[in-house]
């Protein structure tokens, strides 16, 4: 007996739209993604798309919120399972690189927004994401200092920037090569180098 496919709820339709934006960002310049392209990928009319998002800007804002929530939730859950600051940092690193390898459009969206001139709400959202992420890193770094695992003079802000920069370098390399899986493949070696910059050596 044939049954009709279940109709998506408004929330599910919104999330599917956001995921479509992320997919398209992996394939082309995010700034050139049009509502027409989004609607065509989803098999919808533009009118149907705008029932959920009244403008492209609102859709991009929702996409950035989706990215922030999922990335921070992923690294928080990874860190919560770790038994020490170093393990937490490593777990967060692997969770982050796994996330961007799975969603290669995400870093392209972030970089694209940061390059836009002037102040925009979306750009502020990206900056807030980076600040909140850095604060999490600095917390674990400070705990490592207090436990004697990391050297006492460690500049936690600089170390957090180096950590994020290491992931960005992996992303850029993978983007240039067109092979997103390189991010996860090279993440362990990249973190090992970062770890060496933190640890107390006899």
Automatic annotation (TrEMBL):
Source taxon at top rank: Bacteria
Record keyword Transcription present: yes
GO molecular function: DNA-binding transcription factor activity; transcription cis-regulatory region binding
Sorted UniProt keywords: DNA-binding, Transcription, Transcription regulation
DNA-binding region: 34-53
InterPro entries, A to Z: Homeodomain-like_sf, HTH-type_TetR-like_transc_reg, HTH_TetR, Tet_transcr_reg_TetR-rel_C_sf
Ranges for domain HTH tetR-type: 11-71
This protein's name: TetR family transcriptional regulator
Species annotation: Thiopseudomonas denitrificans
């Amino acid at each position: 007996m044939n049954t009709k496919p279940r109709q998506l709820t408004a929330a599910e339709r919104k999330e599917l739209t956001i995921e479509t934006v992320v997919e398209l960002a992996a394939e082309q310049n995010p700034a050139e993604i049009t509502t027409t392209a989004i609607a065509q990928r989803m098999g919808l009319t533009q009118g149907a798309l705008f029932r959920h998002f009244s403008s492209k800007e609102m859709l991009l804002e929702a996409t950035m919120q989706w990215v922030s929530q999922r990335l921070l939730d992923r690294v928080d859950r990874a860190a919560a399972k770790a038994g020490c600051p170093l393990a937490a940092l490593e777990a967060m690193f692997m969770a982050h690189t796994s996330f961007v390898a799975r969603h290669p459009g995400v870093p392209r969206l972030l970089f694209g927004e940061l390059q836009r001139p002037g102040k925009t709400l979306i750009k502020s959202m990206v900056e807030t994401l980076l600040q909140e992420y850095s604060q999490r890193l600095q917390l674990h770094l400070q705990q490592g200092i207090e436990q004697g695992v990391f050297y006492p003079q460690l500049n936690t802000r600089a170390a957090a920037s180096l950590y994020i920069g290491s992931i960005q370098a992996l992303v850029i390399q993978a983007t240039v090569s067109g092979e997103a899986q390189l991010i996860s493949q090279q993440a362990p070696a990249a973190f090992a180098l970062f770890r060496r910059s933190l640890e107390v050596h006899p």
